[in-house]
């Protein structure tokens, strides 16, 4: 009898896993957290200086592009030639 009770308890708990809405809510929360880890923000639209990392539910995760300082090559000219 105990074994039957344990077996039924196991079957009941496995079959009643997290529901689909709870799973979606958890996935959206994880995506928002990942977006914050890359210093992004979930907002309706990204600005021109941002790129879409991925989507947090419906809205994109906008991350600011890294600023790269322009490389300036020094031009050396010989003004005086002998």
Automatic annotation (TrEMBL):
Compartments, as annotated in UniProt: Secreted
Keywords from the named record: Antibiotic, Antimicrobial, Defensin, Disulfide bond, Secreted, Signal
PROSITE patterns on file: PROKAR_LIPOPROTEIN
Residue ranges annotated for the Beta-defensin domain, each copy included: 34-62
Signal peptide interval: 1-16
Entry superkingdom: Eukaryota
Cellular component aspect of the GO annotation: extracellular region
Chief place where the protein resides: secreted
Biological process (GO), any one: innate immune response
UniProt entry tagged with the keyword Metal-binding: no
InterPro entries assigned: Beta_defensin_dom (IPR025933)
Cited Pfam families: Defensin_beta_2 (PF13841)
UniProt keyword Metal-binding present: no
Family (UniProt): Belongs to the beta-defensin family.
PANTHER family: BETA-DEFENSIN 113
Function (record text): Has antibacterial activity.
Entry protein name: Beta-defensin
Organism: Cebus imitator (Panamanian white-faced capuchin)
Taxonomic placement: Eukaryota, Metazoa, Chordata, Craniata, Vertebrata
């Amino acid at each position: 009898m105990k074994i039957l009770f344990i077996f039924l308890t196991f079957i009941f708990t496995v079959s009643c896993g997290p529901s689909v809405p709870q799973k979606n809510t958890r996935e959206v929360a994880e995506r928002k957290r990942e977006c914050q880890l890359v210093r992004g923000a979930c907002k309706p639209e990204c600005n021109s200086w941002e790129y879409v990392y991925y989507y947090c539910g419906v809205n994109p995760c906008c991350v600011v592009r890294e600023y790269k300082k322009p490389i300036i090559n020094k031009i050396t000219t010989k003004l005086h030639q002998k």
